[in-house]
Structure formats: C-alpha cells, structure tokens
TrEMBL record:
Native species: Candidatus Pantoea multigeneris
Signal peptide: none
Molecular functions per Gene Ontology: ATP binding; transferase activity
InterPro entries (UniProt xref): AAA+_ATPase, ABC_SmlMolc_Importer, ABC_transporter-like_ATP-bd, ABC_transporter-like_CS, Mo/tungstate-bd_C_term_dom, P-loop_NTPase, Transp-assoc_OB_typ2
The name this protein goes by in its record: ABC transporter ATP-binding protein
Annotated keywords: ATP-binding, Nucleotide-binding, Transferase, Transport
Domain ABC transporter, residue spans: 7-239
Family named by the database record: Belongs to the ABC transporter superfamily. Drug exporter-2 (TC 3.A.1.117) family.
Length: 324
C-alpha cells in the first residue's frame, strides 16, 4: 500500500449562496493513517467537507487543501489519488465483480497481469474471492459495498473516503460490514475520512470524531473523550443519551448507564417510573422526578420496574460532569 498521508484543511469554507455558509471557514488536521469520522445531523456540512477533501467540490477562494507536503487545492479528484465509497455503491451494473474492481486500473493502463493480481488480492481482502465472475446485480447490498470498497482500494489510494457507506444496509449486515471495515482500516493504516450520522458507527470506527453542527466542527476528540467529556449539550446529546440534573450544587449532567434506580427514600433524587422499555441487554426507564424533570436510567435487564412505582435515583459523584 501507499504510505499514509496527512490531510490539512486551511480556512476551507463553502457557500452555495452569498452570505450563507454550508461550511464555515474550517481548519482541520487529519493525521497520516488515522480514521477521522465526520459526524452530525443532516445538513451540518459533513458531505461538503468530504467532497472538498476529495476534489469533487472546491472550497471558496482563500481555502487550501494539503495532502502531506502537496497543496492539492486546485487538483480535480482524479489527480488526488483518493478512493471513495458511497452509500449507493456507484458500481457499473453491466460489469461483473472483477471488472468493477479492475475498472480504475484499466483506465490507468496497468499491465493485465498486474490488474489480475490486484483484483484477486482485493477481492480476497473483502472476502469475495469466489464472486469474481458474478454480475454485480446478483449481489446483496453488503456484498455490493464490499465490491466498491475493493474497487476503491485497488488503485492504492493515499486517502480513503467514505460517505455513509452503511446507510442503505439492514441492521445485521450493517454491524458485520462495520466490523469488517474497522478491521481493514486498522490493518491497512490508511488515512480515512468517514461521514456518518450514526453515533455508534462513528465511535466504533473513528480514531477521532469531529462532531459537526451548522457548518462548523463543534468538538473534535477521541470517541472516549467525546463520550465522557463532551464540550457542549449538543455533543453530549448527539453522542448517546444524557440527563440534565438540577442539583443544589448547580447544573450537572449524567449518562443513563451511570445512574441506578434504588428502593431508598434517602437517595439524592426521588421520583416515579413513567415507562420502562426493554431492549434485551438493558432496559431504559423513564423517571419523572419530584421537581417535574424527566430523566432516563439504564437498568439491568432482569430488574422489574412498574409504571407509577416510587423510586430513588442514585449515582456516583464522579459520573457527573458540567457543560458550558
Ligand atoms: N450543491 C449545493 N447547492 C446548494 N446547497 C447545497 C449544495 N450542497 C449542499 N448544500 C447545502 O449545504 C448544507 C450542507 O450540506 P451537506 O450535504 O454537506 O450536509 P450533510 O451534513 O452531509 O447532510 P446529509 O447527512 O443530509 O447528507 C445543507 O444546507 C445543504 O442543503
């Protein structure tokens, strides 16, 4: 594989209409070999950022995109040596699996033997060695996405870019392919940028996650730091569930799994069960506190909580955090 390259965005902005920024001026460094996830709700600017990195989109005048020591701002996508994996696979329906993977290599006019060797290597890597001659139409969504991953990797890109690659798959396939992509990214140590609006996917795959909102990065950190030390209420809520607690000492926040329901009238918070939703491994219990606020507490699956039951809510002081 090609040596991984660092990516640097300097003052990259994008406005589609005068005065309205899809992306506010952004400075971002992506380390060589890391997987950076762009996470955020619809319309926050993730895809625009990815397209600026790929060369499919230009940033507004004054912005720069660097791949290592090279300023690639003016280069179109085909000169940037990036591989892309899209939600809709973007495969050629009239070509078979091997021909799809070989496509870019043929354009590069590589020798036939080299093309064959690379196609076989890539199909083995994505677990599709036995599918080389299949029409892509005859594949499942997950298999199609493996083909598009193999095709992206076959050209030995310096950077791998993913735009919601799992969004069209059903839950089980999504989990499996997410694991496989995670393993592959670790094994290849390629620089990757991955767009998703799914926080679990982001945490599972990202070395770091940039949480975006309204065309800006709201926080950039490792998954653990984002989860345990979110900088703002938006990040805290976007990455998992969180409760706001009005305590005598001030306003604090706490994750549902860090709280316990107890049958104890001296627990710090008291309330009544509103609803218990069983998820299998855990149950999420909504509790109406005596001050009128509603919180959620994740409880062991075998506990039984009935609507209207009086409960105490306990938590360790170190599980509380404050937000600005
Ligand atoms: N070609 C375009 N012309 C006009 N506006 C655009 C264009 N592309 C994106 N936008 C706008 O820019 C903003 C950011 O869009 P972008 O696609 O980057 O968001 P996103 O976070 O990727 O959203 P989604 O998850 O829905 O794809 C949105 O308000 C969008 O409507």
């Amino acid at each position: 594989m090609t040596d991984p390259v660092a990516i640097r965005l300097r003052h990259c902005a994008r406005s589609f209409q005068p005065g309205q920024f899809a992306l506010h001026p952004l400075d971002l460094e992506i380390k060589a070999g890391e997987t950076l996830v762009l996470l955020g709700p619809s319309g926050c600017g993730k895809t625009t950022t990815l397209r600026i990195i790929s060369g499919l989109e230009r940033c507004d005048a004054g912005g720069e995109v660097w791949f290592g020591e090279n300023n690639v701002t003016a280069l179109p996508i085909e000169k940037r040596n990036v591989g892309m994996v899209f939600q809709n696979y973007a495969l050629f329906p009239n070509l078979n699996v091997a021909q799809n993977v070989a496509y870019g290599l043929r354009i590069q006019r590589l020798p036939a033997a080299e093309i064959e060797a690379r196609v076989n290597e890539m199909l083995a890597m994505v677990d599709l060695a036995d599918f080389a001659q299949r029409p892509v139409q005859a594949l499942s969504g997950g298999q199609k996405q493996r083909v598009s991953l193999a095709r992206a990797l076959a050209a030995r890109p310096r950077v791998l870019l993913f735009d919601e690659p799992l969004a069209a798959l059903d839950a089980k396939l999504r989990d499996k392919l997410r694991e496989d992509i995670g393993q592959l990214l670790q094994q290849l140590a390629i620089t990757a940028v991955y767009v998703t609006h799914d926080q679990q996917e982001a945490m599972a795959l990202g070395d770091r996650i940039a949480v975006m909102r309204h065309g800006r990065i709201e926080q950039l950190a490792t998954p653990r730091d984002l989860y345990h030390h979110p900088a703002t209420p938006f990040v805290a809520n976007f990455i998992g569930a969180v409760n706001r607690l009005a305590l005598p000492q001030g306003e604090f926040w706490c994750r549902p799994e860090e709280m316990q329901l107890v049958d104890n009238p001296t627990a710090p918070l008291q309330g009544r069960v509103l609803l218990a939703t069983f998820f299998g491994p855990v149950q999420r219990v909504q509790v109406g506190l005596s001050n009128g606020e509603v919180i959620v507490v994740d409880c062991p699956a075998r506990q039984m909580w009935r609507p209207d039951q009086r409960v105490g809510v306990a938590f360790a002081a170190e599980s509380l955090f404050q937000l600005s």
